[in-house]
Amino acid sequence: MVDGPVTEVARELNVHEIARCRPTEAAGERAERTRLRAELAEKGRDVALRKEISAYYAAQHHR
């Protein structure tokens, strides 16, 4: 448990460092998250397609 004046607690939790982040840095992080989410979605679609293709060929092989 953290006790003490707000400024001391904030300093102990490095809140002052977090608050110094520039808005452009935050925007850059948001842009990177957006890019990574899109990449993850694309990879998910790729995996789903590969599963469908492998199921198709497995079904063809058993005929």
From TrEMBL:
It comes from the Bacteria. This is Transposase.
